[in-house]
Structure formats: C-alpha cells, structure tokens
Design a protein that fits this description.
alpha+beta; Immunoglobulin-like; 2 domains; five-stranded antiparallel beta sheet; three-stranded antiparallel beta sheet; 1 helix; 8 strands; 43% strand
Length: 168
C-alpha cells in the first residue's frame, strides 16, 4: 500500500554535468588563447632596431637645458651636433631617447624627428631636415625638445639611438 502523501523518488539526471563541462572547456580555450597572444606580443616589446645608415651619423657635443614654456610647463632641450660621414644626402632622422632613473631603470622612451638648428637674427630656429638636408661630410647643430619626462628621471643625458633615416 502506498502512503497518500509521499513523493515518488526522483530519477537520476545525467544531463546536469553537460553545461558545466562545456563552460569549463570554453574557459580553458579562452585562457589558452590569452596565453598564446601574450607570448607573441612579448617578442615584439623593446626598442626598435638601429637604422642601418646610423653608423654613418655621429652625434656629439650633447648638452641639456631646461626652460618653462609659455603655459608654465617645464621643457627640456637636448642640443648637440650631427655629422654625416656617409655618401648619401639625409633628409630625415628619427632619434629614440631613453631616460633612466637613479637605479638605471628605463622610465621613459620617446622617438622624435631630429631638428637642425638654423641661425636667424638673434636666435636659432629648429627646422626639419626636409628643409635643410644633411649633406655627405657635413656637420650641423641639432635640437630635440621634450615636454613630458617622468618625475623619476635621474636628470642625466638620455641615451640616443638613431632608429630611422630618410634619404633625398
């Protein structure tokens, strides 16, 4: 005889685990994809290679100065000389500047075009190498301008690398 208020036993369900297995599989695939993408990205991190013609360009007599611009922000100028000992006319140079802290760690890395200083009445004007190309066996004064440098910078002259050279 059956009791009037009893509930029948529930049948065992084997379908409960299917969504969990599928979810775990999707999560594993996503994690594997993130891992593989981050591994490939790490290979490309780091400074760009030096330009092949860079061995023909010598930077010398580098001096730093600082001033405030018209809005009161600190601007750092790096001036020196660039010499072309090669046989080609250069109308563009990109320089990478690496700033370090007191522990020698990189706290800033900036690439920018090198500007030639052209004498004007009463001041020197920074002009593009497109306007004043660097001829073979020629030496010209240059300027790099930096507006945003890390406060952790050791105030030393940054490392300079020529990473791109354009020719006329």
């Amino acid at each position: 005889m059956q009791e009037p208020f009893s509930t029948p036993p529930e049948p065992e369900s084997t379908g409960e685990w299917i969504p969990l297995v599928i979810g775990a599989g999707v999560i594993l695939i996503i994690l594997a994809g993130v891992f593989l993408l981050s591994r490939n990205r790490d290979k490309n991190v780091g400074p760009p290679p030096e330009a092949p013609y860079a061995s023909n360009l010598q930077i010398s007599d580098v001096k730093m100065s600082q001033a405030q611009n018209f809005v009161g922000a600190q601007v750092t100028y790096l001036e020196g000389n660039i010499a072309n000992s090669g046989s080609r006319v250069v109308n563009g140079i990109t320089v990478e500047s690496v700033f370090r802290n007191s522990l020698g760690e990189v706290v800033g890395r900036e690439s920018q075009p090198l500007m030639i200083l052209e004498a004007r009445p009463g001041y020197n004007d920074a002009v593009s190498l497109k306007q004043h190309p660097l001829q073979p066996n020629e030496r010209q004064p240059f300027r790099l301008t930096f507006e945003h440098i890390s406060a952790d910078w050791n105030q030393g002259v940054p490392e300079l690398r020529i990473v791109d050279v354009k020719f006329k």
